[in-house]
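Dear colleagues,

As part of the handover before I leave the project, I'm documenting each prediction I ran so the next person doesn't have to rerun anything. This entry is a single chain, and its sequence is reproduced below.
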Amino acid sequence: MTAAPLFVPMPPPEEREAIALHPASPRRDMPAPGWFMLGGKMTVRNVDEATLTPVLPDRPHGGAAVVIAAGGGYLIQAMENEAWAQARWLADRGVAAFVLKYRLEPTPAADDAFAAALIERFTKAADPQARRAMAVPGPMVEDAAAAMQLVRSRAVDWAVDPERIGYLGFSAGAMIGLDLVGRAAADTRPAFLATIYPSMARIAVAADPPPLFAAMAADDPLYSTQGYGLVEGWREAGGSTELHVYAGGGHGFGMGKPGTTSTGIMPAFHAWLESGGWLDAKGGEDLT
């Protein structure tokens, strides 16, 4: 029996609402962007033009907004598993969502070479020593900063409170968010930060960081043996933290792995936003 292909090519989806974050300047070393199904879900690689796509609620709750960044080891972005599904879920509950498609590192055009590159990258991510040498690529942090800046600049157009714009990142997208907080100027700093299965290793945290929501699975094959230095360091810097560790889910569970409590990830995040006052209307104002 022939094995099913790991990558199933698909036509590019319509992205009519996508907004370019920078002037077009294609990289000469970047193959053409490629959309494909991975595990039955829409994924992209070889992105060289960053975009931001609004997914807006019919009736906003308190003007809260979340920029969402998927993961994929800086080589791919799991757009459906870790961005579009979450954006729709939040918008259905009154939270404005903005899907960030950031620039990626190039991958080989041939599927076998591409698969080898992915395996090599995630093998390094699972090795603590190799992982410490993997810095977040600067252009990706620039894209996240540009996304935050754009949402703030168009807050009135999108019925968003500029003081309630946060960031939700998964895996590599979470690491981009952590770097963003570490180097962000006032107009690009998120009001709150949610990191889903990031590296939990301790990092340098500047004083008074934004509130942090962190979640992972105890059986994560990449990061489950690190401890929780990230959260400990955040608290020591004076930041508010909430940590969820699900018994099962592995890495890349997105909206949650069926049959595990990780399926409660988005309700838990929403409850955290609510308890922090991010969804409360200011003085009863209607932002629609």
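DSSP finds seven helices and twelve strands in the chain. Helices lie at 79-91, 111-126, 128-132, 138-153, 172-183, 229-236, 265-275.

All the best with the project,
I.
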